């Protein structure tokens, strides 16, 4: 059962590189393509977190005896600590970019991607 959990978790992973290659091949630009890439990245982060949780659960399931609370607690503590460290570093990087005079990515893509300009460039290429 533990092996099935680990392999099932790995099967859910997808590569953002494949998504980028398809977007480049199909010349896909726009809000749907950006949302698809964002969803792919978020899904990979979720798979990494789920993989750590499944490994801890699998170790507890395959160990001799009952569920070892110390192992499960350590895994959950590491998982929460890693998520908190990533959130803190992300916030610090965002504040640093604002302090340097840079813009956040969420505000810069709206300014540079106008649907009207995109449609006219697609028509002129044909």
Keywords, please?
6 helices; 83% helix; mainly alpha; 126 residues
Percent helix range: over 70%
How many independent structural domains?
Answer: 1
Strand content is under 5%
SS summary, helix count: 6
Question: From N to C, what is the helix and strand string?
Answer: HHHHHH
Mean pLDDT: 76
- The parts where pLDDT drops under 50 for at least 5 residues are none
Inertia-based shape: flat
Largest sheet: none
What is the gyration radius calculated from CA atoms?
Answer: 21 Å
Please state the structural category.
mainly alpha
E-strand count: 0
End-to-end separation in angstroms reads 54 Å
Describe the model.
The structure is a single chain. The chain has six helices and no strands. The chain is mostly helical. It has one domain.
Give a topology summary.
Layout: H1 2-11, H2 16-26, H3 31-62, H4 69-100, H5 105-112, H6 115-125
Helix pairs in contact: 1-3, 2-3, 3-4
Q: Quick summary of this structure?
A:
The chain has six helices and no strands.
């Amino acid at each position: 059962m533990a092996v099935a959990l680990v392999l099932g978790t790995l099967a859910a992973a997808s590569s953002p590189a494949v998504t980028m290659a398809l977007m480049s091949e199909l010349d896909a630009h726009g809000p749907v393509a950006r949302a698809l890439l964002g969803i792919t990245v978020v899904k990979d982060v979720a798979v990494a977190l789920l993989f750590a949780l499944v490994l801890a659960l699998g170790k507890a399931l395959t160990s001799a005896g009952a569920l070892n609370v110390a192992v499960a607690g350590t895994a959950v503590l590491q998982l929460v600590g890693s998520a908190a460290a990533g959130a803190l570093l992300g916030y610090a990087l965002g504040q640093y970019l604002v302090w340097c005079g840079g813009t956040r990515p969420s505000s810069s893509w709206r300014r540079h991607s106008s649907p009207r300009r995109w449609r006219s460039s697609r028509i002129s290429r044909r």
